[in-house]
């Protein structure tokens, strides 16, 4: 039997992080009063790439991925772009307000397969959000042979996870590519698109990456995946996070059908081999 009742979470802090976008930190509420150990344990088992349902009483729910996984205090992060009734209501909340959440849900990134591998990560726009925790985890554990990241967006106003990207640059090669570089004085920002930058990044590997992780606009991911396959990377080595409008998050309502699968339970991460088979992108 599924428990569809949200657990209370507290808005810990937030800051503007891109146009109409904020980076929030939440915390499971009631730890000082003894939140059920099972609830805390379930959230602490969240994996990079999984998502949770954010619940605003009287407004509704919406899915978000973890930018920071829940820690021992039940604190976690999420990048939120204001674009619907739930996010508008959240932007009206103040620090200390209590809202709700359900989760964690879905299938995360294949972390076990990344050990001692050459990994390329590509994020476009808000698509950097489901990749943030896996980048943090890989940097912390150093459990890879090579790691490089491409982050692409339209212009300076839509750059997101700015503090995180500044920190990542101290540990790994990070390629920021912006279509319109007006207002950007940093020479480390490339002008163009992911496809335009891919030859340079792939050449820096010396040999082809063993694994690719992508999240962002589906047209971008489709084009990049086809390029990578032509480059010689196997479709089942290319992993994508697919965004769909999850509603129940437990495979009951059918809002997120992917042919005969559910994005909420079978995803949101899939291989390009799966996506091509189910014609989900494009």
What does this protein structure show overall?
The chain is an alpha/beta fold and 282 residues long. The chain is built from 8 helices and 15 strands. The protein is 26% helix and 31% strand. Strands 10-9-8-7-11-12-15 form a 7-stranded mixed beta sheet, with helices on both faces. The chain has a 6-stranded antiparallel beta sheet with strand order 4-3-6-1-2-5. The protein is globular. The mean pLDDT is 89. One of its GO terms (biological process) is pyrimidine nucleotide biosynthetic process.
Strand order of the largest sheet: 10-9-8-7-11-12-15
Supply the CATH architecture of the largest domain. 3-Layer(aba) Sandwich
Uncertain residue ranges:
none
Describe the largest sheet: 7 strands, mixed
Distance between the termini: 36 Å
| CATH fold-level name of the largest domain | Rossmann fold
Number of domains: 2
Strand fraction equals: 25-35%
CATH class of the largest domain: Alpha Beta
- How are helices and strands ordered from N to C? EEHEEEHEEHEHEEHEHEEEHEH
User: How many β-strands, per DSSP?
Assistant: 15
**Count of separate DSSP helical elements:** 8
């Amino acid at each position: 039997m599924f428990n569809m009742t949200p657990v209370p979470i507290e808005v810990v802090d937030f800051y503007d992080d891109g146009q109409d976008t904020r980076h929030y930190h939440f915390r499971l509420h009631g730890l000082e009063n003894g939140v059920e150990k099972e609830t805390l344990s379930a959230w602490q088992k969240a994996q990079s790439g999984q998502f949770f349902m954010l619940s605003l009483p009287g407004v509704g729910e919406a899915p978000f991925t973890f930018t920071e996984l829940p820690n021992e205090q039940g604190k976690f992060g999420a990048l939120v772009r204001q674009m619907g009734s739930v996010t508008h209501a959240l932007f009206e909340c103040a620090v200390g307000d209590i809202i709700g959440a359900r989760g964690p849900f879905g299938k995360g990134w294949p972390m076990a397969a990344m050990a001692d591998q050459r990994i390329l990560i590509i994020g476009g726009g808000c698509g950097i959000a489901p990749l943030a925790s896996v980048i943090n985890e890989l940097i912390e554990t150093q459990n890879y042979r090579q790691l490089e990241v491409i982050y692409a967006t339209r212009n300076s106003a839509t750059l997101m996870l700015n503090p995180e990207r500044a920190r990542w640059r101290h540990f790994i090669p990070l390629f920021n590519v912006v279509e319109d570089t007006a207002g950007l004085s940093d020479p480390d920002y490339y002008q163009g698109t992911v496809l335009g930058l891919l030859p340079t990044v792939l050449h820096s590997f010396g040999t082809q990456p063993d694994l690719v992780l992508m999240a962002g606009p589906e047209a971008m991911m489709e084009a990049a995946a086809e390029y990578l396959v032509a480059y010689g990377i196997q479709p089942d080595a290319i992993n994508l996070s697919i965004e769909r409008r999850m509603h129940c998050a437990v495979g009951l309502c059918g809002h997120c059908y992917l042919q005969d699968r559910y994005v909420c339970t079978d995803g949101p991460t899939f291989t390009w081999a799966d996506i091509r088979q189910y014609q989900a992108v494009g």
